[in-house]
Every structure is written in structure tokens, then in C-alpha cells.
Fold this protein.
Amino acid sequence: QLQLVESGGGLVQPGGSLRLSCAASGFTLDSYAIGWFRQAPGKEREGVSCVSSSDGSTYYADSVKGRFTISRDNAKNTVYLQMNSLKPEDTGVYYCVANRYSGCATVHFGSWGQGTQVTVSS
């Protein structure tokens, strides 16, 4: 059974860092596009970052470019989202999603994890 589990969220001060993990079980991630999305209270879900299944190309929302980095560790069957220089507006529940043989434009049609809370506050 395909399952994604996010971890690494928490409370951090502005300017701090967190690394989120998206661990897969029941399948291997290397043929999947993996996306990170977030949803803040009262706001719509937004795409944050993605790595495609084909050539490993990456995508970042303008709001996180230069601060967030997505990466894969195929040996650990895990995708990471390194988040630096965090801002209060980065607060939200972060979800990963995996879609096989997909590009980033259609990754959201895949299988979703349960989410991990990130709170940036002083």
C-alpha cells in the first residue's frame, strides 16, 4: 500500500530553519514526481516546491525561491524540503504528494501524505 509520511515540522523563530521529510513506503520514489504543498489557516492550498520524475528538474514558488531546497535520497526513499530564513508567512500545514511518471504540473493528482505543521513565530 502506497503511503507517504511527512515529518520535521515544528515551531521555529523567524530566520530559523527546518528540514521536512517525506518518507515513502509501499513503493519507490525514484519514478515519482514529488511535490510539497502548504495550507495556512483560512487560505487556499499552494504549491511550494516539486521535483519531477523524468529529469529531476525542480520547481519553487516565487515566495520560497532562494530559501527552500527540495532534494531526493533514493537510498532512504525519502524526499526532503530544506527551509531556511523562515518567515511568519511560511506558517501552515505542509503536505507532500507523489505522482508516478509525472511532471510538476500534474503532481497534485497523486497520493498525499497527512501533513506536518510548521509554525514560524517569535
Notes: The mean pLDDT is 95.
